[in-house]
Write a structure and sequence with these properties.
alpha+beta; 7-stranded mixed beta sheet; Fructose-1,6-Bisphosphatase, Chain A, domain 1; D-Maltodextrin-Binding Protein, domain 2; 2 domains; single chain; 265 residues; 3-stranded antiparallel beta sheet
């Protein structure tokens, strides 16, 4: 399937519309519930989900929707192996902390691979858009979208490693020891992947739990910017098996000569 700039723009507009609804709630007191897995749920998650689900249903490209806020409503891919993968509010913990590092994530997956991705951070007014055949772009505020690409690691310089504000652990510290001199950049939500995509970081090791909807859109941005998102064994992170929504541990990589799987052997 050939993805058009028009479709990418429509999905970007939809993410921004959901972001506006999130920011309206962000600016006042809001309710917080707890899901079965003990993760938090706010009214902003539900509001953004409804906007995105309604908007995707109106697009010319029709595909099933797998959203974090409605997994039961997903019956599987269409006959072309396609589906929309949505996290209406990625980084709910960051939203509750009011640190601005939360995003709206919308991806189009085809045969297990994200082929279109939009990541929008409404509190920062920063967006990332990408699609096969189009490339990867970053938009700050009302500025013109700028093409982005991953960085090539320069030997002898400190590694710029992205870590999670909410999920750092011993495994990450052990990896940092193997890498040698490094600078740790803390960030929330799918913005961690986007830092690698725009060349602001060299690697993001994710050695903790994530779900398909946390990564799909940003993975497309990374890949279209020339980077890779792989499991610890070097195999690509895949979205084929929607019955298993938890991702394996993975690495988000710019360009380097490091044999990453060997570090985990």
């Amino acid at each position: 399937m050939i993805i058009t700039q028009e479709l990418l723009n429509q999905v970007d507009s939809l993410a921004r519309k959901a972001g506006a609804a999130i920011m309206e709630i962000y600016g006042r007191d809001f309710s917080i519930e707890q899901k079965e897995d003990k993760s938090p749920l706010t009214e902003a998650d539900a509001a953004a989900h409804q906007i995105i689900a309604d908007g995707l249903a109106k697009l010319e490209l029709k595909a099933p929707i797998l959203s974090e806020e409605d997994t039961a409503g997903f019956a599987g891919t269409d006959e072309h192996g396609r589906y929309w993968l949505v996290d209406p509010l990625d980084g709910t913990k960051e939203f509750i902390k009011r640190n601005g590092e939360f995003t709206v994530n919308i991806a189009l997956v085809e045969h297990g691979k994200p082929v279109l991705g939009v990541v929008y951070a409404p509190a920062l007014d920063v967006g990332y858009t990408a699609a096969q055949g189009i490339g990867a772009f970053k938009t700050e505020g009302q500025n013109t979208p700028m093409a982005i690409q991953v960085a090539a690691y320069q030997a002898g310089t400190p590694w710029r490693v992205v870590g999670s504000r909410s999920h750092a652990g011993d495994s990450l510290l052990q990896l940092l020891e193997k890498l040698g001199e490094n600078e740790l950049v803390a960030m929330g939500s799918s913005l961690k992947l986007c830092l690698v995509a725009e060349g602001a970081a060299d690697v993001y090791p994710r050695l903790g739990p994530t779900s398909l909807w946390d990564t799909g859109a940003a993975q497309c941005v990374v890949e279209q910017a020339g980077g890779t998102v792989v499991q610890l064994n070097g195999e690509p992170l895949s979205y084929t098996n929607t019955q298993e929504v938890l991702n394996p541990f993975f690495l988000v990589l710019g360009k380097s000569d490091v044999n990453w799987p060997a570090l985990f052997a």
